[in-house]
Design goal:
With 413 residues, the protein is an alpha/beta fold. It has 17 helices and 13 strands. The strands form two sheets. A seven-stranded parallel sheet has the order 3-2-1-4-5-6-7, with helices on both faces. Helix 3 packs parallel to helix 4, helix 9 packs parallel to helix 10 and helix 9 crosses helix 13. The relative contact order is 0.13.
Length: 413
């Protein structure tokens, strides 16, 4: 059994609201298969019918209206005996959610694997107030020092991240696994070449200040013919983006947060992808766009320097303009190069297997053996469906596991 710990305050309902439910729960179900059971430790009251995903899977719901830090501190004490004590390892999916893992290791000796996939210091630097910036950076520094000292293994999404954190120097005994984010290639593939008039430039992700989308709008206003901008996602910067686009005369389509299964359709309808973020980890949206054969323009805030994309400084509107125009002009070479790069370095089947190995479990097959052939034919039938909700609760899952273990023991005696 494996315990899955999300970001501080994370929940399945948040994933559902942002259109990430299908992608993330697919990955969680693979953990459940590999570890013969998984428990997702939520920060929300999930008792609304979205608690069971079938098989050996359950969620630990949190009480309503409880502060997330209180939930993190009380999670192990509240569920330790019935849930954490039955797990062989905890998988911290986001660095900010490491506190319950630290408590479980101290109280129960439960080992944990920590994923660190983002430059949190850069995120803290973008806070508007000086005292908040310094306070958040200090908070991250303390939490990082304690977490890295007690983690049994660390997953980083790029070698550059490991170098920046100086893990080998500061924590020589900590096993480090460089595992980039992956793309389900059986869900994302290139469509026949198309040319929109005017061209369509797409961005997929959160609409927030650190994503630098206002400058992208300003840059597109300088391109002739002026491209249409498609923003798939939602966030606090939506109103500012709409206002900027209206002033500059840029047409913007904003479908909002969409179900993950429809992201491919949006990508395939575009001519180029742009990621203007000031800072990134291992951006799934970029690799999904490359898997669909789109030419990509990305900022130097994306640490993957080997990716075949046109790069620019995120602070320069003129560089963004030049890079987007260059990506559109070289679609015939950048598109196939991006697809080949993702197939080699960001295949989700390979990255999920690596993460299972990092947590101590052998690799298992994650897609049908005939998936590559079907994918080349453009068929959608190979998408692995998620198990139907069965309404299982924690105790029901644990009882089923105990019964199966007892039956297996009787068969061997």
């Amino acid at each position: 059994m494996i315990a899955l710990l999300p970001a501080l305050g994370g929940s399945l309902r948040d994933l559902d609201r942002t259109g990430q439910r299908e992608r993330v729960t697919w990955e969680f179900c693979r953990y459940a298969e590999a570890f013969d059971g998984a428990i997702y430790c939520s920060y929300a009251d999930e008792a609304d019918g979205f608690t069971g995903l079938g098989g050996h899977w359950a969620t630990l719901p949190a009480p309503r209206s409880e502060l997330r830090w209180i939930t993190a501190l009380r999670m192990v004490g509240r569920h330790g005996a019935c849930c954490f004590a039955t797990c062989s390892v905890a998988r911290v999916l986001n660095f900010t959610g490491v506190l319950p893992a630290l408590i479980a290791k101290h109280r129960l000796g439960l080992p944990f694997v920590l994923q660190y996939g983002y430059d949190y210091d850069a995120l803290a630097r973008r806070r508007p107030r000086l005292l908040r910036r310094r306070g958040r950076r200090l908070q991250y520094a303390i939490l990082r020092a304690v977490a890295f000292r007690h983690a049994d293994a660390l997953i980083v999404t790029s070698a550059m991240m490991a170098t920046k954190l100086r893990v080998a120097e500061r924590y020589p005994d900590l096993p480090v696994h460089v595992i980039p984010n992956g793309v389900p290639l059986w869900q994302f593939w290139p469509s026949p070449p198309r040319r929109n008039s005017p061209p369509r430039v797409i961005y997929v992700g959160r609409l927030s200040p650190e994503k630098n989308l206002e400058r992208l709008v300003q840059a597109l206003a300088l391109i002739d013919p002026r491209p249409t901008l498609v923003l798939v996602g939602d966030g606090p910067s939506r109103a500012v983006i709409v206002t900027t686009a209206k002033v500059l005369g840029v047409t913007v389509h904003m479908p909002g947060a969409v179900p993950y299964r429809t992201v491919r359709e949006h990508l395939q309808s575009a001519d180029a992808f742009c990621l203007p973020s000031c800072s990134e980890g291992s951006p799934k949206a970029l690799y999904e766009a490359m898997a669909c054969g789109l030419p990509c323009a990305v900022s130097i805030g994306v640490p993957d320097e080997a990716a075949p994309a046109v790069r620019f400084a995120p602070s320069s509107v003129d560089e963004i303009r030049r890079s987007v125009a260059q990506a559109l002009a070289h679609a015939d070479t950048l598109g196939p190069a991006g697809r080949a790069y993702v197939e080699q370095h960001h295949d989700l089947g390979q990255t999920m297997a690596a993460r299972q190995l990092a947590a101590g479990q052998p690799q298992r097959q994650l897609m049908p053996s005939n998936a590559p052939q079907q994918m080349q034919q453009g068929q959608q039938a190979i998408v692995t469906p998620l198990p139907a909700s069965t309404g299982l609760n924690v105790h029901g899952v644990l009882a089923q596991l105990a019964l199966q273990d007892a039956e297996a023991a009787n068969m061997t005696n």
